[in-house]
Amino acid sequence: MQGLIGREKEIQILEDVLASSYAELVALYGRRRVGKTFLVRTVYEKQIVFELTGLKDASLAGQLENFTSTLAASLYTSVPLTPPKSWFQAFRMLITALEARPSKKKRVVFLDEFPWLDTPKSGFLSAFDHFWNNWASRQSNLIVVICGSAASWMIQNIVRNKGGLHNRLTRRIRLLPFNLCETERFLNAQRVILDRYQILQLFMATGGIPHYLKGIRPGESAAQAIDRLCFTNDGLLRDEFQNLYPALFNHSEKHIGIVRALAGKPSGLTRKEIIETCGFPSGGTLTKTMEELLESGFIMGYTPFQKASRDTVFKLADEYSLFYLKFIENSRATGEGAWLTRSAGASWKSWSGLAFENICLKHIRQIKKALGISGIYSEESIWRYHPSKGEEGVQVDLLIDRNDNCINLVEIKFSAQPFVIDKKYAADLQTKRQVFLEKSGTRKSAFVTMLTTFGVKNNEHYPGTVQNQLKMDALFEVA
């Protein structure tokens, strides 16, 4: 579809809705700047008959006035409409307008930033409930799309609604950021032609957020783009962090606290460790906050190999947040060359390794495809051995436990040139594999697998140490 990059599964769902012979209620949610509105407008360009966007922090009167002017524009009338006094009256006006123009073709009512319409004591959700259950659900040619960046609100009030909207959703779409393949295609469409190492560096700093990627200009390097976007006073991403979480979550200070705690612990934290680090009380509020961050894609959780769900380790998954807290916040360096200066230091080396590892964890399907095990059921996790006195600790960056009686122990390394395994590192890898086999007690075959940017140099320490190797190109494949 012209103008859209990726989103094949989401487009298919929306097109299936068009072919449906029933009324459809579609919920679409995802973090801000991820391209939700653009997706709906592009797919339903010819079918949208009414589109209303909620106003942030507006009063009930302000929302209703916005509704009235939008409805008047949809009716192509210059005659001013009298604003309704309630949302029940507003939806009645919408029904009247739709009934006045009957059509056998599919029509779309698109309510964007849906959570913002539900101002305190406005009765909006009850009115929408009534609109859907008593009229819209009976219109076989009607599609109602509700869209919101406040994922927590959408989940709690729509997806898990216990009232009149319970089980009324016919489709649910969670829109995630681009992966590396989609990012490369998006940049190429913007006439930004960079090699994959440069694209990878951009992704490590900004993630796959379309709005952020739009800010990258043709002809500039990754370092130049990061300089301009993140380290100039008016840079697009200079202060984005302060706006990001409050726009998505109520009481966002708790969400930010968890994000900061995870940014300070690259190996991740368990729920218990998050409570201790942040000083939060254990309970439903924390569970809800964690769930909101997970559902919005800001954090990810992995249950360590052979452990229970209570041992799940949470890691910061949002590339921009990690980059902001590591380099942009409190940075005195600004303007041209700021990032080039920082990227030559030791802190860049430690950050790049962590950021590349997190990106790899997001591209499991691509990794499995490159290993030729896409058709084999597997479970992905991490593995850590906490040593007793006199022993060394061991950590496996990514463990792929396969149903064909094999396990891949994946070592993830980021470097600007082919990775070199020296004598000491070869011994470390062999020790890691041996400790894993002994402490886990598994009888499966364990393959040491290297995943690096430019591959591993085939020297005297490579044969017999590494069984598989993948380059960063594998992460850019369609999976």
In summary, what is this structure?
The chain is α/β, with parallel strands linked by helices and 479 residues long. The chain has helices at 8-19, 36-43, 60-74, 87-99, 114-117, 124-134, 151-159, 180-189, 196-206, 210-213, 222-231, 240-248, 252-263, 271-278, 284-295, 319-328, 338-342, 346-362, 364-371, 423-440, and strands spanning 24-29, 48-53, 107-112, 142-148, 171-174, 269-270, 299-302, 313-316, 378-385, 394-402, 406-413, 445-452, 468-470.
Molecular structure report:
The protein is 43% helix and 16% strand. It has 20 helices and 13 strands. A hairpin with a 3-residue loop joins β10 and β11. It has 3 domains: 8-174, P-loop containing nucleotide triphosphate hydrolases (Rossmann fold, 3-Layer(aba) Sandwich), CATH 3.40.50.300; 177-362, no CATH class; 364-476, Trna Endonuclease, Chain: A, domain 1 (3-Layer(aba) Sandwich), CATH 3.40.1350. The protein has helices at residues 8-19, 36-43, 60-74, 87-99, 114-117, 124-134, 151-159, 180-189, 196-206, 210-213, 222-231, 240-248, 252-263, 271-278, 284-295, 319-328, 338-342, 346-362, 364-371, 423-440, and strands at 24-29, 48-53, 107-112, 142-148, 171-174, 269-270, 299-302, 313-316, 378-385, 394-402, 406-413, 445-452, 468-470. It has a 5-stranded parallel β-sheet, with helices on both faces. It is an alpha/beta fold. 37% of the residues are buried. α16 packs antiparallel against α18 (346-362). The mean pLDDT is 91.
